[in-house]
Structures are given as C-alpha cells and as structure tokens.
Amino acid sequence: MAYFDYGAAAELFPSRQRSRMMGAVTYMRFAAAAEAVRYAIEVLPAKLFLGTFLEVNEERFDSNGIRQLYDSAEYPLRRRPVAIRDRVLSVRRAS
C-alpha cells in the first residue's frame, strides 16, 4: 500500500440506504483518519460498515479499503482484538 496519512482530516460516510433504515449514523468528520478508521471498524454495526466509505485528502476508500488501512502495520492506534474478530464474523454472516 502506498503512503497513507493517518493524521489527516477524514470524512466517514456510512451506507445511505442502510443508515436510513436503521435510523442511525450519518456523515461524520474526524480530525485524524486513524480515528475514522477505528470508528468504522470497531464501532459501526456490520450492516452499516459494508456500504461505508472514507474520504481522506480527496481519496476514497470503500469498506475493503478501510479494512486494509486498519490491518496495516502503519496503523498508529491500538487495536481491540475482540472488535476485529467480531467484525470479521459479522461481515461474513452479512455477505
């Protein structure tokens, strides 16, 4: 993966269709992309995560791209092992 600035401002856009149905999360802005990635992986419900995209420095990342950023050795925040396992299981069930 090319260089990614985890400290750059980021915008997170959860799935439109699913967020309306669930009456939940909408557009969010983060001071650091690392926080947006963490939120998408560890906090968003799996059904919303699948249609989510992240925009950083005019570059967009879909849910697979967000997952790659979180799994990267360069990811600067501490990961929650339970969240990782649960997200993988939830995404597999939803697919």
Q: Topology of this protein?
A:
Layout: E1 10-13, H1 16-22, E2 28-30, H2 33-42, H3 46-49, E3 53-56, E4 59-61, H4 63-71, H5 81-94
Antiparallel strand pairs: 1-2, 1-3, 3-4
Helix pairs in contact: 2-4
Rg for CA atoms: 12 Å
- What percentage of the residues does DSSP assign to strands (E)? 5-15%
Total count of helical runs of at least 4 residues: 5
What gross morphology would you assign? globular
Q: What is the percent of helical residues?
A: 40-55%
Mean pLDDT: 82
The N- and C-terminal alpha carbons lie at a distance of 25 Å
> Count of DSSP E strands?
4
Order of helices and strands: EHEHHEEHH
The total tally of domains equals 1
Structural class: alpha+beta
How do the strands of the widest beta sheet line up side by side? Answer: 2-1-3-4
Poorly predicted tracts of residues? none
Largest sheet, described in full?
4 strands, antiparallel
What does this protein look like?
The chain is of the alpha+beta class and 95 residues long. It has one domain (10-94). It contains 5 helices and 4 strands, in the order E-H-E-H-H-E-E-H-H. The chain has helices at 16-22, 33-42, 46-49, 63-71, 81-94, and strands at residues 10-13, 28-30, 53-56, 59-61. It has a 4-stranded antiparallel sheet with strand order 2-1-3-4. A hairpin with a 2-residue loop joins strand 3 (53-56) and strand 4 (59-61). Helix 2 packs across helix 4 (63-71). It is globular.
Any key phrases for this structure?
alpha+beta, 95 residues, 5 helices
Summarize this, please?
By secondary structure, the protein is of the alpha+beta class. It is built from 5 helices and 4 strands.
